[in-house]
Amino acid sequence: MADRILVINPNCTDLVTRGIDEACAPLRMAGGPAIDCVTLKEGPPGIECQQHVDGVVAPMLKLMKQKEKQYSAFVIACYSDPGLHSIREATKKPVLGISECGILTALTLGQKFGVIAILEQSIPRHLRYVGAMGVADRLAGELPVGLKVVELSDEKKTFTRMAQVGKALRDTHGADVVIMGCAGMARYRKPLQDELGIPVVEPTQAAVTMAIGRVRLRWSA
Fold it and tell me: Which residue intervals of 91-183 are DSSP H helices?
């Protein structure tokens, strides 16, 4: 059976999944692995608080078990990495979280990384994760755009706010690489990088890139 990677959007917003799928397009290549993107229908419209994070773990675990035989690796496409360790515990196949992979990628592109969050309330949750990874000394800062996930489809408003926040992270906080802290921002990576003049990491692309390596090199969990 040909290798396939399953990218799971833990919220129920199909528009976000389409953006994720478009972000994966440059990573699809002859000889695979193939990359499929799916929406978790049981999820909320956006993962915006700890209760949302906790609430999607069980349905994601169920989905992974249903699909395990069909796929060689799994990517959790939410910047809170919900269920990452539970799902890793349940399968020997690679499971990648976009927050972990986005941060690890950023560390190779600059000395100090900044994060563009969707909401102010997301930031403490993200900071706990950065602390758990042991890389807090490399974090320049994290600032919100103040938009809910479902509002990110307003391209003009979203890009304007992302550019403002990105420039503040670059100029005021000293970030020399920026991570987009929500999978719903995927479509804005290239124009934002052009606007800021520093590397911008789209974390789903970072995670899928790592998943491809894991699959092609046959590294198990």
Answer: 98-107, 122-133, 155-171
Sort strands 4-9 and 34-39 into parallel, antiparallel or unpaired. Answer: parallel
Residues 105 and 190 in one domain: yes
Residue 119 sits in the same domain as residue 37:
no
C-alpha to C-alpha distance for 162 and 140, rounded to whole angstroms: 16
Question: What is d(CA 192, CA 180) in angstroms, rounded to the nearest whole number?
Answer: 10
152 φψ region: left (φ > 0), alpha (ψ -120 to 50), beta (else)? alpha
Q: What range does the domain containing 138 cover?
A: 100-201
Domains held by the chain: number: 2
Q: What CATH number is attached to the domain comprising 134?
A: 3.40.50.12500
- Please indicate, yes or no, if residue 221 is contained in any of the structural domains: no
Stretch (H or E) spanning 76: strand 73-76
Query: Is residue 87 located within the same domain as residue 145?
Result: no
**pLDDT tens over the chain, length 221 residues:** 689 999 999 999 999 999 999 999 999 999 889 999 999 999 999 888 899 999 999 999 999 999 999 999 999 999 999 999 999 999 999 999 999 999 999 999 999 999 999 999 999 999 999 999 999 999 999 999 998 888 888 889 999 999 999 999 999 999 999 999 998 888 899 999 999 999 999 999 999 999 999 999 887 65
Residues 65 and 126 in one domain: no
Give me the sign of the Cα torsion angle 168, 170, 172, 175. positive
